[in-house]
Amino acid sequence: MSGLPDARTCPGLGEASDLKFPLGAKFREPLTEARFQQLFGDAEQESDLLSEPRWSRLCRQWRRLPGACSGPGAWRLLLARLPPLRWLPHYRWRAWLLGDAVAGVTVGIVHVPQGMAFALLTSVPPVFGLYTSFFPVLIYTLLGTGRHLSTGTFAVLSLMTGSAVERLVPEPLGGNLSEIEREQLDVQRVGAAAALAFGSGALMLGMFALQLGVLSTFLSEPVVKALTSGAALHVLVSQLPSLLGLPLPRQIGCFALFKTLAAVLTALPRSSPAELTISALSLALLVPVKELNVRFRDKLPTPIPGEIVMVLLASVLCFTSSLDTRYNVQIVGLLPGGFPQPRLPNLAELPRILVDSLPIALVAFAVSASLASIYADKYSYTIDSNQELLAHGVSNLISSLFSCFPNSATLATTSLLVDAGGNTQLAGLFSCIVVLSVLLWLGPFFYYLPKAVLACINISSMRQMFFQMQELPQLWRISRMDFAVWMVTWVAVVILSVDLGLAIGVVFSMMTVICRTQRVQCLALGLAEGTELYRPLRESHKLRKVPGLCILSYPAPLYFGTRGQFRRTLEQHLGLGEGGKEAPKTDGPPDAVAEPVRVVVLDCSGLTFADVAGAREVVQLASRCRDAGIHLLLAQCNASVLGTLTQAGLLNRVTPEQLFVSVQDAAAHALERLVRGQEQQEGNPGGAGLYSRSHETTGPKTCTVWV
């Protein structure tokens, strides 16, 4: 470079390879992996690093684990499994207690009507929504790590559970059931919903035992948002019969949304004017209140409890006007006081419900984990994903014994908890007190509550999910692939069903990842003069490539799906074909004559993992390079990849001296090898070496160059 007149050069490699290095550069010997471990590795790793069997490494790591049976180990385990033991001693009573109390009471007031409303989505009597708003909240307070998370009934889970319950316990075709038959049907459906909660809780506990908290990452953000937005549309359509006072059977399975719309349009002339009026008035109150709470959240001391106000007004209106007897308005009826007797769900039904429990468990954990992570990042604390699995698994499992249906964190009440000033999980206890008071004493006040009001609460609670579609233009600008994942998931959820839409969204999301790895290209690297940096040659014509030396980077995992692409791209760059050596590919001008490759450096820093097929491909590459007279060097392999390659037999094809800690070290070794080879060809073994130290240079002493 013109700015480095006194820079050192690499003589002997021709005009195209007079590479210049920065002033004051410090040169050292190239470090192989084995040499690096001798200098900087642990004592246990200095010997047999590359050939140590994987089982012995696992045994060594196991011996390092602290004894779980010791006193300190047991205490650490108890602290990890009971989070209140960690945060309660540091609780700021004066600063946080009032905020937690106000937020808990506010959320508890919303839990009452919302729990009863979501029970209708689940196809069980309203009181079981109150049970689901009490027991899971209490259990999560003791086991959860999300300080700002509000658990309980969730519309998407209720919709999924209701569809499964309707399929497992269908209503008789006649439809005209007596009161006793209706009670028997409700008992069966409550048992099916509790069995689904038991199954999903058991699955989450199994995932916790296997430490599979990372599985939440398979439900990407576009998939979760498209799923909840599509499910919100299902909720809206499923509540239309209740809004209009139409006693229509619930549609389940694929195309349920369109079947429901067709049934509503057909039965529209039979709508109940009284229930239609109640629905219109309820929405006219609930929707503006929601907007006011959102727009003035910073100015309001606490959000306006529009739901509870609507419940009280509608109950008083129905009682004073006798709407249930005069106009046949459907009401909630008697809410049993106290708690149900704990009983184990029918275990004989578990094989039938496991297929439905799996997507419910995945959605419950994914939504809860993503919500907990959002607020943990916002308020600077950490979330243990595996502990969250334990908390939600135990919550669903134990609450199922009290006839609760599947539950998780909820979008609306979590946002409400934060806006109301909640600080810790202690707010959940105050929420439980509110629900408990309704179950023990205040239940009779909801006797005359019209079910149409509960349907309106269901619809108004979907506001936040519907507004997620506003993010689509930004998603289109950021990533077209994520936009496609969002749209495919949403269309599948709306047209087919929530369960199938979730499966299609996850599969399509994973396929996009696989397709991206398939499209990765192997990049030829060149040296930026005056630095030790290697960058793709296509990025700039100023990057230099040494004749006979090829430095390649493959920035993708190497597995059975990419081994073919890996083989083809390396054959092109190295000139390896089926019939022997060919003209190698060049990234220079089109009319440039490609030099035969004598040394190749494979940059493995982008290989995040390699499976058996990928490892064998590298071993075969080493054999083909050796047969073609090409010296293969591997650089910057992570420990996992290096272990897999070693077990696949790489050291039978190359020596440990061909494995380097960085591209710079491998390139330095390659240049020395090329210089020695050229000197031998010219008959001048005593000529200038690669790194001439005939004079001292001045300049900054902090730059270290490996070339």
What is the topology?
Layout: H1 33-40, H2 54-64, H3 71-81, H4 84-87, H5 93-121, H6 127-132, H7 135-143, E1 151-152, H8 155-168, H9 179-209, H10 221-238, H11 240-244, H12 256-267, H13 273-295, H14 306-321, H15 323-326, H16 350-378, H17 385-400, E2 408-409, H18 411-419, H19 427-442, H20 451-460, H21 463-466, H22 472-478, H23 480-495, H24 498-518, E3 523-527, E4 534-536, E5 549-553, H25 563-574, E6 576-577, E7 580-581, E8 599-603, H26 612-627, E9 631-635, H27 639-647, E10 659-660, H28 663-682
Parallel strand pairs: 5-8, 8-9, 9-10
Antiparallel strand pairs: 1-2, 3-4, 3-5, 6-7
What would you say this structure looks like, in words?
- This protein is mainly α.
- It contains 28 helices and ten strands.
- It has helices at 33-40, 54-64, 71-81, 84-87, 93-121, 127-132, 135-143, 155-168, 179-209, 221-238, 240-244, 256-267, 273-295, 306-321, 323-326, 350-378, 385-400, 411-419, 427-442, 451-460, 463-466, 472-478, 480-495, 498-518, 563-574, 612-627, 639-647, 663-682; strands at residues 151-152, 408-409, 523-527, 534-536, 549-553, 576-577, 580-581, 599-603, 631-635, 659-660.
- A six-stranded mixed beta sheet has the order 4-3-5-8-9-10, with helices on both faces. A two-stranded antiparallel sheet has the order 1-2. The protein has a two-stranded antiparallel ribbon with strand order 6-7.
- The chain starts with 32 loop residues before the first helix and ends in a 25-residue tail after the last helix.
- Residues 1-17, 45-50, 589-593 and 686-707 have low confidence and may be disordered.
- Pfam families: STAS, Sulfate_transp.
